[in-house]
Every structure is written in structure tokens, then in C-alpha cells.
Amino acid sequence: QLTREEISAAEANPDHKLKLSEPKVHVPESKRKGPRYTPVSKRQDRPNAILWLVRNHPELKDAQISRLVGTTKSTIEQIRGRTHWNAANLTPMDPVTLGLCTQIDLDLEVERAAKNRGAMPEAELGSVLVSARETELGNLGDEDAGEKEIDADAVFAKLSSMKRVETDEDDDD
Hints:
Layout: H1 4-12, H2 40-43, H3 46-56, H4 62-69, H5 73-80, H6 95-98, H7 103-117, H8 122-125, H9 132-146, H10 152-155, H11 157-161
């Protein structure tokens, strides 16, 4: 946690305050042991979240999905094989918006799965969602393109053709 430069600076100057260097390894928060409690109102959303994860992140293993959403591997297999009892009524929904997991947890699991899987074929690359971090970094370069000169005449060109023609119906009194 201390660099050699920091130690040598402290040895040379006893009044120097030591500063910790940035950790090189990302350590996730320690999680509670045991199953998580999911409120009854959110339990019906689990299969939709599983379907979303299976479609948008096929690189995730069953154990990772069950960790994220808090479900069993058999339920995941049933949804993958479309043998779930409610398979006809399932609609894929993002587990983050449903409140079943956090975006940070989802990004972490997707990152782990991508590392374990290795390089993806280019055909599958477009079908997988990009993590929030990559989206934010990608948008930083696009800001210059979005700040072009905006011509007011071009923006309001169609507006003039949409104006109503005033009729003299009110003057009949």
C-alpha cells in the first residue's frame, strides 16, 4: 500500500505524512451469507429478470445469474429451455430497474464472465449490451460531435408549414 518513493520520502523527512497508494485489485464488498430476502411483490419479477439476463448477457453462467437475482439454477434452466410454467407470459425486464440487483453488481458479474469467456466472436458482439462504464466512457468522445452549430431556421423549417390557417367563422355574429 506504500510505494518505495513514499517510504524514502518519509525516511528523509520525519514530518512527512505517509499517503496510501491506490489499490491495484478491486475488492468487492463483503456479502452476507445465506439467501437474500426478496419481497413478495418482487418475486413475480424474477423470471422476467432471468429472461433478460439470458438474452442480453449469454456469457453469464447460471451461478452468476442466481447470485444476481437470487434464484435457483433449476428456474434458470427452465426459463432457458422455455419449459417454465409461465414461459408464455414472460417479458424480458432489466433486473436493475426491477430492483433485484444493483448496476454495479451486474457490471461486475458481466466483466467477470467476459474475462472467463475470453474474446467474443464478432457476430455475437452486437447482441450483447455494453456495461454502464463503457457507455459513459464512449459518450465522452461524442460530446464534441453533439455541440455543432445549430441553425434556428433548420430547426423550425417544418413549423411554418404546420401553422393553422385562421378562418373568419367567429366574425359571423
